[in-house]
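Reading a protein record of the kind used here takes only a little practice. The integers have meaning only within a learned vocabulary of local backbone shapes. With that in mind, consider the following protein and its fold in token form:
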Amino acid sequence: MSLSAVDLMMRRSAMTLLLCALPVLACRTQEAAVEQCLKAVNDARAEGSDVSAGTLARRCADVYASAGCQAAHRDFDRAPVEARVSTLAMACAKAYCPILGRDASKLCSEPDRLSVVALGVAFIDLRRAAWRHDLGA
């Protein structure tokens, strides 16, 4: 069965519209992920909040484009309590440092020499760079 010229043109037009819409759909998906994350942060800041770090991590997972960093956020509570932040930070560093470069964070340039406090600060730097990269901010 062959397609008529009109059918072929209609299919091409539909594909063109779909391809043009993909960036908009991706933008809406990112926007929803950011809104969900911001709501989680605001909920956690509220007086008397019982929002756990794991809940916050899971609700912010989709802000990241990297599947490895997303998974680390979703699996935050699976690591032993004392290793949760470092497990999350190192998984995101593994995902983003090759893309962002050594200057993005000390997690990229000297991960083995960071104290617990310095690791937390370095993760904030990495997160900021990852969001700038992924969200174009």
